[in-house]
Amino acid sequence: MPWLWNTNISRVLMIGLGGGSTQRAFEHYYTNVVVETVEIDPAVLQVARDYFAFKESPRQVVHLEDGRTFLRRSTAKYDVILVDAYVQGRYGSSMPQHLVTREFFKLAKDHLSTNGVLADNVIGSINAWHSDIVGSLYRTLKSVFPQVYMFPAKTSQNVVIVATKAAVIPTIAGLRARGKELAESGRVAIPGFQGNLERLMFTAPSSAAGSPVLTDDFAPVEGLTERSTE
C-alpha cells in the first residue's frame, strides 16, 4: 500500500525478516526495487534460507543487527520502511518495546526520502483483540507523522498502519484513481492491490482515545497486550 503515497519506490528497508515472504514478493513483483532487511537473530536468517527459499543478492541484502541500532548508525534514505518485528514474552509474541516508541519513529522518519512512507504490521484488531496495541501505535505514529492510515486485514488478525510525510490528506476517489493507474500500468503487479485499498481507514481507532503514546520512558507493550485479551 505505500505505493499509493510514493509511486517511485526503489529502495526499501524492512526491520524483521521472518520467512522472507514480503522480501521475496518485492523481488518478484518489483524488479527495480532493492530491499535491505535488518534481522537481529542469525537463526532466523538461516531458517529463511533453508526452509523458505530466501536468497541474498545485490537486490536482497540482509544486515544482522538490531533495527534501531542500524538506523542510528546509518546515513541512508529509504522510500519505504517496513516494520514487522516480534519477540516472545510472557503473553506470547509482542512487539519489541524499543521499536514502537515516539523516539524510534522519529529516527525512522529521518531516514525516509521526501515522499517516504513507513508501514508497521501490528498483530491485532481495530475494536477487539489487541485493540489497545493498535490504538497506541496509531497515537504514537500520529505524534510524529502528519498523516496516519490503517489497513485492517480481511482474513487475519493484522492491521497495517501506514504513516506518511505528506501533509495533505488525499481523497478516497483520488487514491482509487491512483491505484487503478498503478495496476493498469503494471507498476504495481501484486495481486489484490486494488481490493486492499478498499480496507483503508482514514480515522483513528476508538481505542486510541484511551491508549498511551509510547515513549522510551513508557512503552508497556506486554501490559497493553494483556489488557487487550481480557
Written account of the structure:
By secondary structure, the protein is of the alpha/beta class. Helix content is 33%, strand content 23%. The protein contains 8 helices and 9 strands. The longest helix has 14 residues, at 172-185. It is globular, with a radius of gyration of 17 Å. The chain starts with 10 loop residues before the first strand and ends with a helix. The model has no long low-confidence stretch (mean pLDDT 92).
The spatial strand order of the largest sheet comes to 3-2-1-4-7-9-8
Helix content: 25-40%
Total number of domains: 1
Count of alpha/pi helices: 8
Q: The CATH topology is what?
A: Rossmann fold
Beta-strand portion reads 15-25%
Query: How would the global form be characterised?
Result: globular
Order of helices and strands: EHEHEHEEEHEHEEHHH
Report how far the terminal alpha carbons are from each other.
32 Å
CATH architecture: 3-Layer(aba) Sandwich
Count the beta strands.
Answer: 9
The major pleated sheet works out as: 7 strands, mixed
CATH class: Alpha Beta
Low-confidence stretches: none
Keywords:
single chain; 230 residues; alpha/beta; Rossmann fold; 7-stranded mixed sheet; two-stranded antiparallel ribbon; 23% strand
